[in-house]
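FORM 12-B: Structure-to-Sequence Request
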């Protein structure tokens, strides 16, 4: 394998996966320590948010603060007039603090964000113009968060149809590094005791199957089996997921770069 520090251009793909996506921040921390930097970032759902902060030049500490301080379930954000329990548009001002210019062109790295068009069943890829609306849409997990209107169409979580957006950067870089936090491992029988657990497992299997070929297309793929024990919306798992991402990436890079 080529030395990551010497490749002419590096593309970083960040999957969706809720709070487990804090492992992406750990990946970025480890890459920084090895002097490895991505030229292009492509992300879905929480991967889009982490990717935007990375492309924006925010530090790892600032990235973690963003997720710790952003109120996921603020009571005055609840809505009865939109499809979804929480009005996603209410987060615009929260995001504006981190992205005051609200456009892709102001970022330090090229960024691609994917969201699902709920009306026509297509994928929307965003890489120019308004930034915050696509970010909100990409992370708007139904039915918790309401869809976001962009160009007169309703968009929601990118992970619904594309949880690992390889497409925007394929063929544009010399090396593709993927970070996948939507892990699938063996489950014991007692982990499937009710309909919610069963639905979550089936959804996870479907997402993994849809994206398997793209995962295998990466020059280096990072996956984190220890994330299975962290709930997708479990805010208490932020630091743990971050540590898992950091420690595993350090271990892999130690092996890869010593060869």
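FORM 12-B RESPONSE
SEQUENCE OUT:
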């Amino acid at each position: 394998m080529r030395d990551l520090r010497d490749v002419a251009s590096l593309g970083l793909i960040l999957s969706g996966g809720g709070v487990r996506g804090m492992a992406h921040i750990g990946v970025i921390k480890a890459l920084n320590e090895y002097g490895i930097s991505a030229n292009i970032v492509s992300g879905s759902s929480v991967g889009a948010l982490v990717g935007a902060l990375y492309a924006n030049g925010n530090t790892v500490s600032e990235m973690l603060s963003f997720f710790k301080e952003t109120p996921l379930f603020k009571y005055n954000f609840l809505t009865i007039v939109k499809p979804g329990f929480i009005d996603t548009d209410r987060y615009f001002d929260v995001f504006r603090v981190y992205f005051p210019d609200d456009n892709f062109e102001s970022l330090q790295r090229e960024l691609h964000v994917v969201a699902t068009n709920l009306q026509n069943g297509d994928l929307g890829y965003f890489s120019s113009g308004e930034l915050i609306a696509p970010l909100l849409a990409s992370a708007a997990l139904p039915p918790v968060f309401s869809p976001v209107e962009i160009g007169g169409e309703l968009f929601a979580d990118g992970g619904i149809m594309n949880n690992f957006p390889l497409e925007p950067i394929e063929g544009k870089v010399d090396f593709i590094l993927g970070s996948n936090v939507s892990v699938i491992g063996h489950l014991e029988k007692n982990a499937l005791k009710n309909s919610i657990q069963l639905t979550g497992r089936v959804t996870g299997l479907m997402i993994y199957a849809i994206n398997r070929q793209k995962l295998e297309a990466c020059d280096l793929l990072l996956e984190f089996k220890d994330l299975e024990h962290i709930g997708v919306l479990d805010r208490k798992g932020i630091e743990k997921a971050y540590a898992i991402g950091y420690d595993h990436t350090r271990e892999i890079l130690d092996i890869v770069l010593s060869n």
